[in-house]
Amino acid sequence: MSVRPGAPDRSTGYAVTQEIAGTDSAPVALSQRYTYLAPTIIEPQNGATATLWDIDGNGEPDSVLFQLTLDESEPYAVLVNGIRTDFEPAAAGTTREHFVPLAPGEHTIEVAYRAGTGELGALRGTTFDAVLPQ
Ligand SMILES: [Ca+2]
């Protein structure tokens, strides 16, 4: 049986059904409940405006500062508009800063812990508006 992770920080239960001759049975058992963890996003907050910075000094502001806290010492992944990059674990409680190259406009960044198999845990996301500095 494979399961999909639930929303982060929320107790999630699974009911088990069996398909017999093309018909799903009534749920026969309720599994124990699980709480999936996800890294905490510090900034940009959901719905916020994020200033673009010129990190490489070429005169073009083109990167947003993305800050997260790792409450678990687990490998994790960052998904920028759905494009995933994997990162190695850090000590629990570490705050990580990622400068993410982005064009002005609305973007979504999600984070999740990942298992050794590469599967992602619960996703936590933020959608924000990247803007040029005033
Ligand atoms: Ca630049």
A few lines on this structure:
The chain has no helices and 14 strands. It has strands spanning 11-12, 15-16, 19-20, 23-24, 29-30, 34-35, 40-43, 49-51, 63-70, 76-80, 83-87, 94-101, 105-113, 124-131. β10 (76-80) and β11 form a beta hairpin.
What does this structure look like?
- The chain has 134 residues and is mainly beta.
- It folds into two domains: 1-35, no CATH class; 37-131, Immunoglobulins (Immunoglobulin-like, Sandwich).
- 0% of the residues lie in helices and 46% in strands.
- The mean pLDDT is 88.
- Calcium ion is lined by residues 54, 56, 58, 60, 62.
Which class do the helix and strand fractions yield? Answer: mainly beta
Q: Globular, elongated, flat, extended or rod-shaped: what is the shape? A: elongated
Overall pLDDT confidence: 88
Under CATH, the topology of the largest domain can be stated as Immunoglobulin-like
Q: Level of helix content?
A: under 10%
Low-confidence stretches: none
Radius of gyration: 19 Å
Fourth CATH level, the homologous superfamily of the largest domain = Immunoglobulins
The SSE order reads: EEEEEEEEEEEEEE
Largest β sheet strand count, sense and barrel closure: 5 strands, mixed
Q: What ligands does this structure carry?
A: calcium ion
CATH architecture of the largest domain: Sandwich
Residue fraction in strands = over 45%
Tally of helical runs: 0
Key features of this structure:
134 residues, mainly beta, binds calcium ion, three-stranded antiparallel β-sheet, five-stranded mixed β-sheet
